[in-house]
Design a protein that fits this description.
Layout lengths: L4 E6 L5 H12 L6 E6 L12 H6 L2 E5 L17 H5 L4 E6 L2 H5 L6 H4 L5 E6 L9 H15 L5 E4 L9 H18 L3 E7 H4 L4 H4 L2 E4 L9
Helix pairs in contact: 6-7
């Protein structure tokens, strides 16, 4: 996590936003200033903006569309995104909308990304529709790379079924993540999950363990 710029992408419902929020908190251990940019202009649920207060209490600045968490469906991007590229002493996490539709928003900032190659993490949940096989995940990964014009540099196994997730689910998800890694040559960087489950991982996976806390819930729960 020594790099300052990190882009989190993945399929809808993969746990991408939850991972991005926890990742931003982890970066606070190495950086005095951390931004999280909510570029999810597609999905109205599980938005980084929804936990803005908790993030800012943790010293993380949130940049989001002016229409985030409103009933106005406008794919607007905030002008202050440019600030994170000029503040080179700060770390930044981009939480990007699901699939290649959401990743298109990254293309606007290509000129900035080419100046400092970001860590681009692709989040995998083996229990989501359309991302349950190596072929499906690899195709989605390539579509996102094409739309964003960025290359994925690492994989994250975030396989879960919400509150019913067990060690077996994470291990099964790791099998899929390893298959994608072999197919693409992209390494698995993290295995994400609740700390009480991760501590049961075998030693080979434990070193990649990334404990997360739950911040998000559906608005109608």
């Amino acid at each position: 996590m020594e790099q300052r710029m990190h882009v989190i992408v993945g399929h809808y419902g993969s746990g991408k936003t939850e991972f991005a929020i926890n990742y931003a908190h982890a970066l606070r251990q190495a950086f005095e200033r951390v931004y999280i940019v909510d570029l999810d202009i597609v999905n109205p649920y599980f938005r980084t903006f929804d936990v803005k207060n908790a993030l800012e209490e943790g010293g993380i600045s949130v940049i989001a569309s002016p229409y985030a968490s409103s009933n106005v469906d406008v794919p607007a991007l905030p002008a202050e995104v440019a600030r994170v590229f000029s503040d080179r002493d700060a770390a930044v996490v981009f939480d990007v909308g699901g699939d290649d539709d959401g990743a298109i928003a990254l293309g606007r900032y290509r000129q900035f990304f080419t100046r400092e190659a970001p860590e681009v993490l692709f989040v995998i949940n083996a229990f989501r529709p359309l991302s349950a096989t190596e072929e499906q995940v690899t195709a989605l990964l390539r579509d996102i790379e094409g739309a964003s014009r960025l290359s994925v540099t690492g994989l994250v196994n975030s396989s879960n079924i919400a509150g019913e997730t067990t060690l077996e689910h994470i291990v099964k998800g790791q099998t899929l993540t390893d298959e994608v890694s072999r197919k693409t040559g992209i390494p698995c960087r993290y295995v994400a999950g609740l700390e009480e489950i991760l501590k049961e991982l075998p030693p080979t996976l434990l070193k990649k363990g990334f404990p997360i806390k739950r911040y998000l819930s559906l608005p109608f729960r």
